[in-house]
Design goal:
This protein is an alpha+beta fold. It has 3 domains: 49 residues; 156 residues, Lysozyme; 170 residues, endopeptidase fold (from Nostoc punctiforme). It is 38% helix and 9% strand. The protein is built from 12 helices and 8 strands. The strands form 2 sheets. Strands 3-8-4-5-6-7 form a 6-stranded antiparallel β-sheet. A two-stranded antiparallel ribbon has the order 1-2.
């Protein structure tokens, strides 16, 4: 804006001088030429600044900031950005090498960082995301997420609350790099990471990073391909086997059964006396249930996104809590009904999926049924008996709460 103001002032001053010397017709032509030059100048200035621009999380403007020769010694703002990118790339690769990881691990990390932050250590992002990998607060303290070395270690080995890292993903070595990156990040834009492979390889070359290096970790060398390429298989959450997604639903592969645990009593409708004071949602209970029912015929957008699904049903976006179990814990006691199997329509029902795990939440729609993601089909919403979470997944019912999103 400052440059545009300066151009307008310059054009105004020059125009007044020309009007005195050339007369009105000549001044008009000259003034038009000045405006044209101003537009071109502003365009070139914006273009020069584009290399330092960063879009929203998941879709940053990752332009190639290097010189035409690929030397990384570009001039001005673009050259400064490239130097930062190369420096950060070397730090990430140093972490990978220090832990015996292969060059492919470095490649996946560089692709992820390019997509998330343009390989720049950002102090801002979507919600509470910060750092080169745009990790959420649940991954660790902000100081750690803003430290490239510590952030890279979390990307490779997982967050401090059990979020799976790259090495927790079964068969990551044999997956396409973009798919492996998505298995860690759980982005709403999964296809975006693959597009960063060429820029990542170019930066690695400029930084002198060997992406063909073999790993020295025994488990990396011995582990075979995953059974389902493009899916994460069973990730280790440091408390046992299982899968934990963006908001940490359940404790096994979605859409599959578990131990066949017997449910402890039937679920039925409780009294609907209205929600306690303080519950203010963008959709009414009836609207939320109607919306949830419509998602049964919708696309598979909800894999491992149980908390996101119920918050969206009530008209919200991402919640402050990272995991379903945190939502249960943060809900005030006066709005929680532990172990009660008679929730009113529209209530949020919660299950524990094991010690240290993130739990599961679903929307109660009445008649003993819930709208839940992944229970029958990965990523899809299905209407099923509430007892299915215990019976099919072997989870423990915690209780229900009013639809409060603290």
């Amino acid at each position: 804006m400052q440059q545009q103001d300066a151009l307008r002032l310059a054009a105004g001053a020059a125009g007044r001088g020309l009007m005195l010397k050339l007369g009105l017709p000549g001044a008009a032509i000259a003034f038009a030429m000045l405006l044209l030059l101003g537009v071109l100048g502003a365009f070139n200035a914006n273009e020069a600044m584009a290399d330092e621009a960063c879009g929203d999380r998941g879709s940053p403007q990752t332009t190639d900031a290097g010189s035409d020769s690929g030397s990384g010694k570009g001039q001005g703002r673009g050259g400064n950005l490239r130097r930062k990118q190369i420096k950060n790339a070397k730090i990430i690769d140093g972490v990978a090498k220090a832990h015996g990881l292969s060059g492919k691990a470095t490649l996946i990390a560089l692709m992820t960082a390019l997509q998330e932050s343009t390989l720049i250590n950002l102090d801002h992002g979507h919600a509470d995301s910060v750092g080169i990998f745009q990790q959420r607060a649940a991954w660790g303290p902000k100081a750690d997420r803003m430290n490239v070395k510590k952030s890279a270690k979390m990307f490779f080995y997982g967050g401090q609350q059990g979020q799976p890292g790259l090495t927790d993903i079964k068969g990551w070595q044999h997956k396409a790099p973009g798919i492996a990156a998505q298995d860690v990040q759980r982005s709403l834009y999964p296809e975006m990471y693959a597009g960063q492979e060429a820029p990542a390889r170019k930066i690695a070359k400029e930084a002198g990073i060997d992406l063909d290096r073999s790993g020295t970790r025994k488990e990396d060398e011995e582990e075979g391909p995953s059974q389902e390429p493009g899916r994460s298989g069973q990730a280790n959450d440091r408390t046992g086997t299982g899968v934990q997604g963006l908001d940490g639903c359940y404790g096994h592969e979605p859409g599959t059964g578990a131990a066949g645990k017997k449910a402890k009593g039937k679920f039925s409708d409780g009294r609907a006396d209205g929600w306690p004071k303080g519950v203010k949602n963008h959709r009414s209970t009836a609207e939320a249930i109607a919306w949830a029912r419509r998602q049964v015929d919708g696309p598979p957008n909800w894999e491992r996104l149980c908390l996101r699904f119920v918050s969206t049903a009530y008209g919200f976006g991402p919640t402050r809590q990272y995991r379903a179990i945190e939502q249960w814990q943060d809900t005030p006691a006066r709005m929680k009904h532990a172990k009660d199997r008679h929730p009113p329509k529209g209530a949020l029902m919660y299950w524990s999926t094991g010690a240290g795990r993130a739990g599961h939440v679903a929307l109660y729609i009445g008649d003993g049924k819930i709208a839940s993601n992944d229970i029958r089909r990965p990523g899809y919403i299905d209407i099923v008996p509430a007892a299915a979470i215990e019976k099919d997944w072997g989870s423990t019912y915690l209780g229900w709460t009013a639809p409060l999103f603290p």
